[in-house]
Each structure stands twice: as C-alpha cells, then as structure tokens.
Amino acid sequence: MRYLTSGESHGPQLTVIIEGVPANLEIKAEDINTEMFKRQGGYGRGRRMQIEKDAVEIVSGVRNGYTLGSPITLVVTNDDFTHWRNIMGVAPITDEERENMKRTITKPRPGHADLIGGMKYNHRDLRNVLERSSARETAARVAVGAVSKILLEQLDIHMYSRVVEIGGIKDEGLYDTETFKQNIDKNDVRVIDESIAQKMRDKIDASKKEGDSIGGVVQVMVENMPVAVGSYVQYDRKLDGRIAQGVVSINAFKGVSFGEGFKAAEKPGSEIQDEILYNSESGFYRGSNHLGGFEGGMTNGMPIIVNGVMKPIPTLYKPLNSVDINTKEDFKATIERSDSCAVPAASVVCEHVVAFEVAKAITEEFQSNHIDQLKAQIEERRRLNIEF
C-alpha cells in the first residue's frame, strides 16, 4: 500500500489516492467518516472545527461498496473555501488584484514551517507555505488510516488510542488490553482515568486564558497482530522504525517510543526484557510487554504499544518574536488560527497513521491481491506461533 495527499488548508478540497488495497474489501463512506469526525473533536479545539464538517466522498476504486483492487480516490471538500475563493483560487490574477487582497504574509511564525519553507521554495508570500504545511493535511491522513483500519478489522486486528498526558497532568494507570479498549472516547480529553479528565480541561482552559498552548503524550495500541511482520535484515524493513517515522511526521509530534519507552533507560534489563513462555493453546507468548510488541524490528504477537509526544501548538494568542522577511524588522508573530490544545485530536491522528503503517507492512509481507487471499495467509501465519 502507498498513498499521496494533495490540497491546501483553505483550498477547495483535500484529495487522497491510495494504491494497494486488496480487492473485494467492503468499504462504505460512512465508516470512514466516523473516524474523520473523531479527529475534529476533543476539548481545546478552535472555531474552525465547528465550521468544517469533514466528510469523505469516494470517487474511484470502489464499486457497489467493494474495492476493485485499483487506486482508491477520496475527496474531502472544504466548506469554508467560499470565503477564500479569491485568495486561494487557481486562476491567474493581476498585480493590482494581488495588492488589493492584502493577504500576503511576510511575517513567519516561530515553530511553523513558514520561514524555512519560504527559503526552500523561494516564496515571498508565506501563505504558499503555511497552506500546505498546515495540520489540516492530517484530515487526509485520517481518511487513509480509516481505510487501513477497515482492512485490519477484516483480519481481526484492532486499533485503539488514548491520551496519556496533557500539559504535565498524567494518567499513571497501567491498563490491560481489555480495559484499554473498553474505555476509549468516554470523555472529551480521551483519557481513561476519569478522575483527571477535569484537571486536564482546567489546564487547557487556563492555557487558553493566558493566550498560550499546551502539548502532551498519546498512546496507540494494536491488538492481535500476527507474529514476525517486519524484518531485522535491513534498517528500513524494521516495522517499529517505519512506525516511528510515520508518527514523527505528524504535525507537532516530536518524539515516539514503544512499550515502556524512555522509562527503559531507568531500569535494569531483568525488568525490561519480556520473558518467553509457551503453552499448547496460545503457542509462544511473553510474560510481559515492556518492549511494546517488537523484537528485532518484528512483531512478537504481543499488542503493539506506540507512544507519541506532541509539542504545544506554535500558533499562539500570546505571540512570540519574529522578523519580517521583507523589512527584516522585529515584530510580534501574527495569529493565523489556533487551538489551545489539540492532543485529544492528535491521538486520533496518531492512531490512523499507525494503522496505515501496519496495513502497509501486512500487504508487503503477504500476498494481498484480494481480501480472501490475505485472510488465508494471515491465518497461516498465526498458526506459526503454535506450530513452530
């Protein structure tokens, strides 16, 4: 599987083309849209999430509800484009029209791609950078992940995500798989420990009142993954490495770990390595899951646990210092749009990014021309864990 996205934040639409989805997989737009709407929720989101109602239209690759094996095209229309038609239109405009728009951006915001993107692509109007570098693009990636999740569900592989920390307020709970998956989305900060949910809301409110923003930590779980997906033979075939790249490619994500993650640095090996056990019913399994489901870049049959760190959103109502690219004068950075906290929504994005990487690895590992062929091979691999 592979995909490309296109589209700008205030452009007419986001477009995704996904290739490599097996044929005969049942897909409905409403199932994708259920995931899309999750991305727009969460405490701390800004006003634009109330304007845009992201919904996917499937325009190719699916016939009568089933995939054809050919590329799938998904379109997300930007309802707000009506107000941006003159600024973001495709047709050429005169210099006078450009001047009258008065929307040229020459003042880069700290923490955004504005300045460096302008340097790289020689844009004197930084809107040409920020429109594409915007986190709006994650809507398209959630659509890809939603298709991936539909595929994974057919293989009895399940995805879940939650918030672990917001602004230093942490959910210290260690949850088994059943508790994890049964407590998703029970509140608007997506935290399992209900007792700290209000503390997180209060922290978000305080940050917004101060014109600031806060980040946090999210966690994704993949349940019932077959063993030995990925490989140790080359660096770029290690599945945990590929998931890590996918996670840190999400806007504002600055760190990723698996299982115990950075806590592993504090403990002796005897407390971190997962002991290997065996019984005739389950086959090989581990007595713990400190390593987050990976050994040697390959899945070991335990749940995959991915932790992602999101920095505070860089667009602030309490703007920081910057420099105008034309006048070279200091100024206070302008506000384009801002959420005070997007960590709950980011957990949804992270879940879907991981879903794609897992689905991609599976379609590479096994023959996947059509869904029945893939199901049969997955079942054969699961028997390996017992019969090896």
From TrEMBL:
Organism lineage string: Bacteria, Bacillati, Bacillota, Bacilli, Bacillales
Signal peptide extent: none
Record's subunit section: Homotetramer.
Function: This reaction introduces a second double bond into the aromatic ring system.
Keyword terms, alphabetized: Amino-acid biosynthesis, Aromatic amino acid biosynthesis, FAD, Flavoprotein, FMN, Lyase, NADP
UniProt entry tagged with the keyword Flavoprotein: yes
Molecular-function annotations in GO: chorismate synthase activity
Keyword Cell membrane tagged: no
Needed co-factor(s): FMNH2
Residue stretches spanning the membrane: none
Native source species: Staphylococcus borealis
The protein's name in its UniProt record: Chorismate synthase
EC identifiers of the protein: 4.2.3.5
Reactions this protein catalyses: 5-O-(1-carboxyvinyl)-3-phosphoshikimate = chorismate + phosphate
Gene assigned in the entry: aroC
Sites where the protein binds NADP(+): 39, 45
SUPFAM superfamilies for the chain: Chorismate synthase, AroC
Cofactor note: Reduced FMN (FMNH(2)).
Binding residues annotated for FMN, in chain numbering: 132-134, 251-252, 296, 311-315, 337
Annotated pathway: Metabolic intermediate biosynthesis; chorismate biosynthesis; chorismate from D-erythrose 4-phosphate and phosphoenolpyruvate: step 7/7
Pfam families per the UniProt record, alphabetical: Chorismate_synt (PF01264)
Taxonomy, superkingdom: Bacteria
Entry similarity comment: Belongs to the chorismate synthase family.
